[in-house]
Amino acid sequence: MSIEKVAKIAGVSAATVSRVLNDQHIVKPATRDKVLAAIAQCNYQPNLLARQLRTSRSRMLLVLVSNITNPFCSLVVRGIEEEAERHGYHILLCNSESNPTRESAYLSLLRGKVVDGVITMDAVSCLPGLTDMIGDFPWVQCGEGDPEFRASSVTIDNSQAASAGVYHLAAKNRQRIALINSDMRYLYSQQREQGYRKALTELGFEYCKIEYVEELDYTAGAKAMEKLLQNAPKPDAVFAISDVIAGGAMSVLHQQGLHIPNDIAVLGFDGVPFGEVTTPPLSTIVQPMHQFGIRSVQLLINKIKHPQLDDSHEILEWQLIERGST
Amino acid sequence: MSIEKVAKIAGVSAATVSRVLNDQHIVKPATRDKVLAAIAQCNYQPNLLARQLRTSRSRMLLVLVSNITNPFCSLVVRGIEEEAERHGYHILLCNSESNPTRESAYLSLLRGKVVDGVITMDAVSCLPGLTDMIGDFPWVQCGEGDPEFRASSVTIDNSQAASAGVYHLAAKNRQRIALINSDMRYLYSQQREQGYRKALTELGFEYCKIEYVEELDYTAGAKAMEKLLQNAPKPDAVFAISDVIAGGAMSVLHQQGLHIPNDIAVLGFDGVPFGEVTTPPLSTIVQPMHQFGIRSVQLLINKIKHPQLDDSHEILEWQLIERGST
DNA sequence: CTGAAAGCGCTTACAG
DNA sequence: CTGAAAGCGCTTACAG
């Protein structure tokens, strides 16, 4: 079923059908009604590929996440989808697992005109080949903002938030605050570590111990916690780079019979729902995940509509929520 | 940059460039080399929309999930993406939140030729309008298999698994086994409830108490648990329809000072990673989530390639894992 | 082995 | 207000 056939049924030209389809009000009401009737009669739905090819607009957005399994990511994606829908856009999801081959396969959709722009939530910024692939296409980095790249960004002040986390723990009389950080490829990891070290210095604390994880999952958090408990003196607080990591750490502490927060305090990062149901509930630094998604889409669509626009870098507010674990 | 320009640079016709692009081996090696050089020289990437329009194959799959935030969903999506990539397909994600408007917007992409087929993980089956939209397009239901519909499916035997759960709890000397079930729109909810009731009858248990949740999140699980504890006699075991629900329930039990499993046992469903880090670790019925994703894609692509094929209904194996909570 | 031509199904100046 | 025609960028019989 094509526009040509609808036109024939309605007794008009394809151009007129197209005008009706696109809500152009220059069509005479009577004609319009005939067309609408024909469309309904044959249950016609335009071929979107043809339209996209012709207009060179796909109204699709590529979203590159490193791990959709991470609740932080899925909450951001939710915000992205909500806002995209509002603007008539659809989402193509690439769950990259930080796999460059897969990322580049998806990014080639930009040059292939299948998507109009991309939101990245992975550290593409350190994979030079990939940034070449993005080239001049509309791009916003979400949750991470490397000003070196020609991309807009939506983030929080990671360094400041991490410092605040350390001060919070210090206010709870903790002296030996360990950090479980993730892959230093991520700019946010670097920034949070910097904030952690800065606060430690300001406080005059000597204890400074950092364990790195390669994946942001419970198992990685558990392993890191085990390592942290091996050397003396043991920490009396752990600051985890993500709530998921904190969850893994807490399970090890329970196993070893340590009391949270008396023996050791635990502070997370992200503000993911499961932090509300841990034992004890997890204190954490909340990122505005939903808002991350919404603003990212707004910036991206703005850039798609006005390509000559300058990149903008948004810093949203974080918030420290104290629950039972600190 | 179009195929025409590449052809001009290489001194051949567009048809020849197209043949090289599509790896057709009838091209003379010398010609082939010239073309490849031209492609490299101008960094050419074919317009995928044009190709898709011409071949009427988009190599895109639509995935409809009700809530990407649910770890069950994201683990299945991961499997889907992995297998799709293997076949050269990309994923369009619709996080429907069970919102019919959004679902139908995405489903219209089927008739719009933007996607070649759809995998649903939501209860579209009870939204008649939506199944009309899917029409005769390739469709597989994942995690739910309603034989009434013209769709293939990949599931487990939900009724059998639920019965086994009840028997497991009975073997732990539980007599008052409550069920926290989800929305009865879902076929799997109906099937699991049926398995639960069947086992209860077989065991001759009189206690039978079911609480329903509308959302599959921690909060909903917590609320349901609170209600369950309000009437006497209290249950000595809770069987939750999902691990996330179980997590919410456990937090309430901890708050009320009840010991798990001594005072009350908790059994989950899904086998999601966070069940490993609860206190105590969660016993659960594991669904092969990754395999769900993989098989769904295989069935779907098979159907895309051979539309006349009959629908197939696959039942995969579940597994009861006993951890500390039962 | 290669090219000229038609066509996928739309949209959009242009002319009337 | 409407239609004829061109064109988006590919692929694919068809002919040579």
TrEMBL record, chains A, B:
Pfam families recorded: LacI, Peripla_BP_3
Keywords assigned by UniProt, alphabetized: DNA-binding, Transcription, Transcription regulation
The keyword Membrane is assigned to this record: no
GO MF, any single term: DNA binding
Keyword GTP-binding: no
Origin: domain of life: Bacteria
Alphabetical list of InterPro entries matching this protein: HTH_LacI, LacI/GalR-like_sensor, Lambda_DNA-bd_dom_sf, Peripla_BP_I
Domain (HTH lacI-type) ranges: 1-55
Entry protein name: LacI family DNA-binding transcriptional regulator
Highest classification ranks of the organism: Bacteria, Pseudomonadati, Pseudomonadota, Gammaproteobacteria, Enterobacterales
